[in-house]
Write a structure and sequence with these properties.
Elements (H helix, E strand, L loop, with lengths): L5 E2 L9 H7 L9 H18 L4 E6 L2 H12 L5 E6 L2 H12 L3 E6 L8 H10 L4 E5 L1 E2 L4 E2 L2 H11 L2 E5 L18 E5 L10 E6 L1 H9 L9 H8 L12 H17 L1 H21 L15 E5 L6 H12 L1 E2 L1 E2 L8 E5 L6 H17 L8 H11 L2
Parallel strand pairs: 1-12, 3-4, 3-5, 5-8, 8-9
Antiparallel strand pairs: 2-10, 6-7, 9-10, 11-14, 13-14
Helix pairs in contact: 1-9, 2-9, 3-4, 5-6, 9-10, 10-12, 10-13, 11-12, 12-13
Length: 382
């Protein structure tokens, strides 16, 4: 019997039925009070979760579109930016910056390492720079970078900080204003458990000032157009928005706020601990520095003699559970388990049971039930 696949990858994440129902409801006209109320509610909730009083702008795009909007609006060709690269999405941010002809100073790390604020400080001391562009969660490795520490460095030097929080926002702690984040870029399809297709950016006063003198070309992602449209008596978007996706995100954020931001973070922390204890109980090694901070995704080293990509494919084929393989230099060496968004305890139990069974079938010595029991131990103590 063929059943729907269960996504246990770090996004897109499973979607609650309330979100699907909202997306299937009648459209509200995008030039009127109905849509204006939706846009205002979504904006206010996102600002609450980001912990920011800055402007927030929403686009119909992937999270990558939000990253591109930051580069297009903040800089001019030749501006120097510092980009720590410790994984696939750090590389992507650097590529976007180069596409807009910026002078990109990359800080290279081994994949799995965490960005160090001291390295950022050294790079900024080498020559003047306009900004630091970084991830909070490097999804390809599961590592959570210390945005707060980097924010202290950029604030001391009067440099903008642009943070990609697509796979971290809502799953791990973030205080955008308190940590000095000038631009935070997020997406709909991760911890909020809405469907893909919406990106958003928070924009500080310093970022607005930079945008006024920036000469990079922009049209669809012109922040000023979105700000002007939002500040109308009835808020709207400058272009036809993805109305159904906005209705879905509205429903998803209502669920998030009903559970409570702190309670959601606590749930993510517990699910992460249970996943990691289950993995350790199988004798597997976690991948990446500071795994205790990785509440969004757990990266695991494939055991000797087992190809990580083949493991992921077999779990999917046999149990219809989708894990994520390694990316770039980690292909075949690492697999990743997502636990951000619409997940609860039994989702983790089921995933670990499938992992146990698959590893045993691939010839890896497994004590049956060890991972499940370890996860249950975490849940029983909370």
């Amino acid at each position: 019997m063929e059943k729907p696949e269960i996504i246990m990858a770090p996004g897109p994440t499973p979607v609650p039925p309330q979100v699907y129902l909202a997306q299937g409801s009648p459209l509200v006209y995008h030039r009127g009070p109905g849509y204006g109320a939706v846009l205002r509610e979504v904006t206010d909730n996102l600002k609450t979760i980001l912990r920011t009083s800055n402007d927030l702008l929403i686009f119909a795009s992937s999270g990558t579109g939000g990253l591109e909007s930051a580069v297009a609006n903040l800089f001019s060709p030749g501006d120097r930016v510092v980009v720590p690269v410790a994984g696939y999405f750090g590389e992507r941010f650097a590529k976007i910056a180069r596409a807009f002809h910026l002078d990109v100073r990359v800080i290279d790390y081994e994949w799995g390492q965490a960005v160090r604020a001291g390295d950022v400080s050294t790079a900024l001391d080498e020559a003047p720079a306009s900004a630091v562009l970084m991830q909070q969660s490097e999804t390809s490795t599961g590592v959570i970078h210390d945005v707060e520490a980097v924010g202290r460095v950029t604030r001391d030097r009067g440099v903008l900080l642009v943070a990609d929080v697509v796979s971290s926002l809502g799953a791990v702690p973030l205080d955008a204003d308190g940590w000095g984040v000038d631009v935070a870029v997020g997406g709909s399809q991760k911890a909020f458990s809405a469907t893909p297709g919406l990106a958003f950016v928070s924009v500080s006063d310093a970022a607005w000032a930079a945008s006024k003198t920036a000469t990079n070309p922009r049209f669809y992602f012109d922040w000023a157009a979105y700000k002007a449209s939002y500040e109308l008596k009835t808020p709207e978007n400058p272009f036809t928005p993805a109305i159904s996706l906005m209705l879905g995100l509205q429903a998803a954020l209502r669920l998030y706020m009903e559970e409570g931001p702190e309670e959601v973070l606590s749930r993510h922390r517990i699910l992460s601990e249970a996943t990691k204890e289950g993995v350790r109980a199988l004798g597997l090694d976690l991948f990446g520095e500071h795994s205790e901070r990785a509440w969004a995704v757990t990266a695991v080293r494939a055991p000797e003699g087992v190809d990580g990509n083949e493991l992921v494919a077999k779990v999917r084929a046999d149990h219809r559970i989708i894990l994520a393989p390694g990316q770039g230099p980690l292909k075949g060496k690492v697999f990743r388990i997502g636990h951000l968004g619409y997940y609860d305890r039994f989702d983790i139990i089921r995933c670990l049971a499938a992992l146990e069974m698959t590893l045993e079938e691939m010839g890896y010595p497994v004590k049956r039930g060890a991972a499940v029991a370890a996860a249950e131990g975490v849940f029983a103590s909370r």
